[in-house]
Structure prediction request, 775 residues.
Amino acid sequence: MTSKLTLSNRTGWTFALPGLALIVTFIVLPFLFAIGLSLTNQRLLSPNATQFVASENYRQLLGLGVVTLEPERDDAGEVVRDEAGEIQYPRLREITRSEAYPQYRGMREWFRWQSGENVIVVIASDVVFMKALVNTFLFVLVVAPVQGGLALMLALLINQKLRGINIFRTIYFMPVVVSIVVVSLLWRFIYDGQNGLLNSILQGLTFGLFQPVDWLGNPSTALPAVMAMSIWQAVGFHMVIWLAGLQMISPTLYEAAAIEGASKWQTFRYVTWPGLRNTAVLVLVVITMQGFALFAQIDVMTNGGPLDSTQTLVFQAVERGYGKQDISGGSTISVILFAIVLAISLTQRWLTRER
Amino acid sequence: MNLTKHLAGVVIASTCLCVPALAQTKLTMWYHGAGNEVESRTLNQIVSDFNASQSDWAVTIESFPEKSYNDSVAAAALAGNLPDILDVDGPVMPNWAWAGYLQPLPIDESEFADFLPGTKGVWDGKLYSVGLWDAAVALFARQSTLDELGLRTPTLDKPWSREEFMAALDAAKASGKYEFALDLGMNDQAEWYSYAFSPFLQSFGGDIVDRSTYKTAEGALNGEAAQAFGKWWQSLFTGGYAPGTSEDPADQQTGFIDGKFAFQWNGNWRAVATMEAVDDVVFLPAPDFGAGNKIGAGSWQFGVSAKSKHPEGAAEFIKFAAQDKYLAAFSDGIGLIPPTPSAAKMTKNYKDGGPLAVFFDLSKAQALVRPVTPGYVVQAKVFTKALADIANGADVADTLDAAVDEIDADIESNGGYGHR
Prediction:
């Protein structure tokens, strides 16, 4: 028996065909290529023959190890300290380069902590990739709830019958229409450490007490600065989606709530929020995907610096594949990113399923 | 009946159109300077002169924006669509030659005997490309600043030593008149870092890669000289002498002119505009950090693509373009250094006593091309990141060691890049 999907829906399939063909040609096929390339040592340009290397690229990216460093001791067995009293340790490179530990070859320090007299060092084959991984997750963890929440607040504010409300809607939506590259360039000026707009405003508000901060030049403020700017840029887009969701809720429900004497909070909690369920799922999934694809802002504003504090997975994939001509390495990052995003989307769907 | 008439008409029309084209074989050329009017005008002039001067070849140009030029060439090479004549950035040339995009120039090297060394692209003992200009970097300063701070004017024969250079920066900083003593253009993390800053490393006695074998960076990029360089480099930023990587991009264009900096490390392509705005600007040679004073060399050059069916035609064009009058025209148009002394004499800026003549001397005396290896493309990226990290406070020894590891791993995974 032919299923209903294939037979009685022939028109539907015809309509879907052009889009489907484009998606297969430009997204599915390249992605299958990427999986294939990630198992080889393909270079962007090289006269050398491509070889199959199995999981070597993945090992290069994901390899981790833990090393315990014991303090250096002098002949009497005393711990060596420098003038400031800091305990002296051997250099990590003596281990990662020594013949005695072939498994740690080429690895670098990711982070370390003190444990008694010893230090424990976590080493990684690709520290930059690890930092990119952490930064990307941090970015999504902060941006998804904050951007979604702000967008909902804006949507509630502009979902009113006021004179000129369209002006506000336009203003909030404006950054979405402007190219992200232009927005990033502008924010680079706003964040400027010498005489940027942000520093000037903060100094004005505090009557000169505020010390100017080099927002993008400081490892501790660079990523938050990029987050803030990204939230501002795309908040209008999600506001519109929330707004669509809000306007789908039947006014009769609000009238009923009013008759029952519900407070504003109760109306939101028991009428608006349940009505926005599906919208919330959509907004969350879209922000998460956009967050994992963070690239343009980094490329324009920081180049991954300072000190890798704004490295992200997509930026690394491009930098490696094109900048360093290592197309198999770039493909490997893309495949890993795909696996992460797929896992998260499935989890989100499961958590927000209809119960 | 009707159809036959049509066909006949088409055949007649096409033969008529083809007559001039049959005599001249078509050659295609790609150029990186789309959007640059003066450059395009000069190049178009050369092409139309060439096409009119002989009856064998007809060159047509396609221009690309510089930023996407290298990607376009890579894509075209994969698709097998390379043009006959390729424009190539000097340090990238070995990469393309090794990858099989370029063939050696079928021109005798003696034709270019008096060209500046930085304008000749040699790989594996063969000449692959030739440049119609070179570029140079100098320390921009005002004569009035030097006088005020009581500094000796350095010359090519007697450049500043490291101590004199740092004393100059200290004096500029102590005067309190400048936002920063020195501007290095740190925001530009493309080719600028390896072009402008690796000569400092070489002046300390280190290098990006060991040029005797090109098989490793060990000892060159993390040896004693390189460590000393790294510490000095970091001190420029921790000491507050120079703005770091988050610098406003506009400052490299106008910061010196506006008086924000006492000194600026910048290229000769900014010299004309700076001279117009600053009357007493002087272009000082690089300081000598112990192993001689060095600046980078090598700009865009012309080569013949490997797939070209008419290399002799492409060579004809390159020889034609390398005439002194065109070299001078390019130099007058965009302020770049003409490759030959005879062309220099014909230019407004580089003739004896011309305002930029100093750059010609700088280029002749100090210029050192970037490492001549297909691995340079990756090595430049690694070097750039290492310098940015050190400027931002990373541990010098660890950063340089990590850079060496990355460069060595890349050389190994590329089978030594064909160096024997």
